[in-house]
Write a structure and sequence with these properties.
Oligomer: single chain
Mean pLDDT: 91
Number of helices: 11
Helix content: 40-55%
Radius of gyration: 23 Å
Shape: elongated
Largest sheet: 6 strands, mixed
Structural class: alpha/beta
Strand content: 15-25%
Distance between the termini: 62 Å
Strand order of the largest sheet: 2-1-3-9-4-10
């Protein structure tokens, strides 16, 4: 009888712990994200703010191609990796995931290399990324800042790397930071600049051209959540609203400005109706 009583007591204890564990999940917010700068912003700046509100934030770095389905299917409460044009493409048939707020923008910009002459000097040399998207963005920036008047495009409307001006070189993204000093200037994607710990606010960089603020509004990275759950589940809505409020806070803005030194820019906008 004594052993039977102990077994029953043990089962009751396990049942209690299991129920407690389930209950604890109501205070956990699970977010999938890209590594830089998204996961760092969430872990370093957002998590302490949520802890003050009684929530534990769990962040998982996940391949970008999986993240919207993961939120739609309920594997994660939200994701933080994309801009609205990408989300609209995902939602082209049905709005399963919606943008809660805009948080930051990752501009492509000009960074100083050896900078032996002004960036507008005809003798200035430039390196750009050799992938179609970033290379085209780079050449568009050189056009808008008056460095070149135009450039040759391929049949898809992207930069034709075989017909670049003689002072512009297309370089593999993983080599851009290491080879920056070989050129007067480099046009680096945000994540590439972050890997090189490049300071966008330094004296030599702060006045160099970057993509327009109009593009920032379009390409700002957003927090995205499950549309149906947000509309029907009060507990879920409370989690997402608390997470969004933290991402829109001055603490997050201060963290981004201090940590990413002009390479990543805050672009905070509440999109909740």
């Amino acid at each position: 009888m004594k052993n039977k009583a102990l077994i029953i007591l043990g089962l009751n204890l396990l049942s209690f712990l299991s129920l407690s564990s389930c209950k604890d999940q109501s205070n956990v917010i699970e977010v999938s994200s890209s590594l830089l700068p998204h996961a760092s912003i969430l872990k370093e700046a957002v998590s302490p703010l949520l802890k003050e509100k009684g929530y534990e934030l769990k962040v998982t770095v996940l391949d970008w191609t999986l993240q919207n389905n993961a939120v739609k299917d309920g594997d994660y409460d939200a994701n933080y990796f994309q801009h609205i044009p990408y989300l609209e493409t995902y939602n082209s048939k049905q709005e399963n995931v919606f943008a809660v707020c805009k948080v930051h923008y990752e501009p492509l910009r000009v960074y100083a290399g050896k900078a032996s002459v002004s960036y507008t000097d005809s003798k200035a040399t430039f390196e750009i990324c050799n992938d179609a998207s970033n290379g085209t963005r780079a050449l568009d920036l050189l056009v808008s800042s008056g460095v070149i008047s135009s450039y040759e495009k391929d049949e898809d409307g992207n930069a034709d790397f075989n017909r670049l001006p003689s002072n512009i070189k297309a370089v593999a993204e993983n080599l851009l930071v290491a080879s920056l000093e070989d050129y007067d200037y480099g046009l680096l994607p945000c994540n590439t600049a972050l890997t090189g710990n490049i300071d966008g606010n330094s004296d030599e960089n702060k006045n160099l051209p970057k993509e327009s603020e109009n593009l920032a509004s379009l390409k700002a990275n957003v927090l995205a959540a499950n549309t149906k759950k947000y509309e029907t589940d009060d507990e879920y809505k409370k989690k997402i609203d608390c997470l969004a409020d933290a991402l829109l806070s001055s603490k997050v803005r201060e963290y981004i400005d201090a940590e990413y030194k002009g390479v990543v820019l805050t672009y905070q906008q509440d999109l909740r109706s």
